[in-house]
Design brief:
elongated, 26% helix, two-stranded antiparallel sheet, 6 helices, alpha+beta
């Protein structure tokens, strides 16, 4: 260790954690996975699932383990990616803790089961958190807000919306994902035209699904493209 670092009063030991913003769409609502903390600090308060990274783990391995231990969800089957690092002094009353936040998307995920230091795990509507109706432990509302904006951006430029759908889906179901996450109505005809004109976005399965009312709807699966060209831009009331 360098002498200047060993003797420095400006440097202290830091811990590394992982936190996960896990999203799914249920009942035409965007939901995020929360736990009720069973230990201090913030005992009894809602938080994103997460915890300390063990010395033998990669960051991703730690994130997958914490998700399984605290909520009983297998994250290896989800679209999981790093969101960013959060390390402001004072974000954790236990000391200097830097967390690596992960973002995950999945279709109508199952009811979670709390474990380890999580008293319980549950799905909560994102709208109830972003409007300030409920507080989250640590700086998890900041992480959640950043994750939500990242999802909204990804829906413009990538095929990430298909991660919220099953193996096969109708264009109406895909449009619902965009409407729920963007919080805006999309004209069905414009949306259908835009999606089908974007090469590689979706592929027809050749099958149809009979809805409760109306005509049978064609089924699609995710195509071969991840980046959408041209993108589907929000803010105009319909895909650009």
């Amino acid at each position: 260790m360098d002498d200047w670092l060993k003797d420095s009063t400006e440097v202290e030991a830091s811990w590394v954690t992982v936190d996960l913003a896990i999203f799914t769409v249920r009942g035409d609502q965007l939901m995020v996975l929360l736990i009720e903390r069973g230990v201090e600090p913030f005992l009894g308060q809602p938080a994103l699932p997460g915890g300390y990274v063990q010395k033998s783990e990669t960051l991703r391995e730690g994130a997958l383990r914490e998700l399984w231990e605290e909520a009983g969800i297998d994250g290896s089957r989800l679209h999981l990616e790093q969101l960013g690092a959060y390390g402001d002094p004072g974000r954790d009353p236990r000391g200097r803790v830097v967390t690596i936040a992960y973002l995950a998307l999945g279709p109508d995920l199952p009811a979670p089961v709390g474990g380890t230091d999580a008293k319980r795990a549950y799905w909560a509507p994102v709208s109830q958190l972003t409007n300030g109706a409920q507080e989250l432990a640590f700086d998890h509302l900041v992480i959640l807000t950043d994750a939500l904006e990242e999802i909204r951006r990804k829906l413009e430029y990538t095929a990430a919306a298909t991660a919220f759908c099953g193996e096969s889906f109708t264009l109406s179901e895909l449009r619902t994902v965009y409407e729920v996450i963007w919080g805006q109505y999309l004209d069905p005809s414009n949306f259908r035209r835009k999606v089908l004109n974007t090469v590689g976005f979706v592929q027809p399965t050749g099958e149809r699904r009979l809805p409760p009312t109306g005509r049978p709807a064609g089924l699609y699966r995710r195509g071969t493209a991840w980046l959408l060209s041209p993108p589907l831009l929000r803010g105009t009331g319909h895909p650009a």
